[in-house]
Amino acid sequence: EIDDIKLMECNVCDLVRYCSVKCQRDHIPKHLQVCKKRAFELRDEILFKQPESSHLGDCPICCLPLSIYKKNFTLYSCCSKRLCNGCMYANKLRQIEGRLEETCPFCRQLMPDTDEEAKMNLMRRIEANDPIAMHEIGMERYLEGDYDAAFAYWTKSAELGDVVAQYNLTTLYFEGEGVEKDEKKELYHLEEAAIGGHPVARYNLGCYEEEHERIERAVKHYIIAANLGHDKSIQALKECYADGTISKEDFAAALRGHQAAVDETKSQ
Predict the structure, then answer these.
(1) Region 80-101: what's the mean pLDDT?
(2) C-alpha span between 206 and 212 (Å, rounded)
(3) 26: which residues sit within 8 A by CB, 6+ positions away?
(4) d(CA 170, CA 158)
(5) Which residue in 26, 88, 147, 183 is a FRET match for 77, CA 20 to 30 A apart?
(6) pTM for this model (two decimals)
(7) Model confidence band, residue 36 (pLDDT cutoffs 50, 70, 90)
(8) Which of 208, 217, 268, 207 lies closest to 245 in space, CA to CA?
C-alpha cells in the first residue's frame, strides 16, 4: 500500500503490482511474455520440491511411513484408514490370544462379513465426504466399465485432496475413457499427483521428459521418486548414470535416499 493506494498483484506472477484494473490492462502487452516465463518458474519451484513423505503418509497407529506398495498395507472400509502390515499383524495376534471378535485395528468396528457390507461401509464414508472412499468406489465403477461414474467420483475425490484420484484421472484423459483425450489435462493431473508425493506419477513424468529429450528434468523427477522408495526410478537412474547424465555423487545420494525411505517403512 503506497500513499493510501492499495496495489493489486498480477494474478499469475509475483513480479508487478498495479494501481488499477486499467493500469493492468494497459501493461499486459508489455508484461505478458515475462509473466508467462515467471509463472513457469514458479510452477517448477513447486513441482521439483521434494515431498516430506509419499502421498500415503504415515500409518495412523504406529506413525511409521506407509510403504508405497499395496502389498505392505491394508485399507479398511469402515474408517478408510490405510494401516501397515505390522499393525494389522499385531492386532490379529491380540484378537487370537484374547479370543476376541475380528475388528478394525484403528476404529474397532467389526469387520464386514461380505463384499456388500464393505461397499456399504464405503458408501457411508462417502456421505461424510471421505475422499478415499470416493476413490475406492470410483475404482469399482472404472473396473465395471462405467467411466462416467469413475470420472465423477475421482474428480470429487481429487478436489477433496486425494492424490491417488489425481493420478487416476490421468488414465482417463490418456485413454479418453469417460472424457475426451486431453494431453494438457493428463499432464496437469500427473503433476498434481507428483506434487502430492505420488512416486509413480513422478516416475511417469520422468519418462515423459526423457521421451522429449529433456534429460535434466527427467533426472530430477527420478531422484525425487527414488527418495520416496520407488524401485523403477532407481533403475532409471542406473541407466542415466551409465549414460553419463547423472553424476556419481548424485546417483550415490539417490541410492542412499531410496534405501532410507524403504527402511523407514519397516514395521516390526
Answers:
(1) 95
(2) 10
(3) none
(4) 12
(5) 147
(6) 0.87
(7) confident
(8) 217
Residue 136, C-beta contacts closer than 8 angstroms, at least 6 positions apart: 75, 77, 80, 122
155 grid coordinates: 474428480
> Is the pLDDT at 1 greater than 50, yes or no?
no
Q: How is the chain classified by DSSP, letter by letter? A: -BTTB-PEEPSS-SS-EESSHHHHHHHHHHHHHHHHHHHHHHHHHHHTSPPSS-TT-B-TTT-PBPPSSGGGEEEETTTTEEEEHHHHHHHHHHHHHTTPPPB-TTT-PBPPSSHHHHHHHHHHHHHTT-HHHHHHHHHHHHHTT-HHHHHHHHHHHHHTT-HHHHHHHHHHHHHTSSS---HHHHHHHHHHHHHTT-HHHHHHHHHHHHHTT-HHHHHHHHHHHHTTT-HHHHHHHHHHHHHTSS-HHHHHHHHHHHHHHHHHT---
Query: Residue 80: left if φ>0, alpha if ψ -120 to 50, beta else—which one?
Result: left
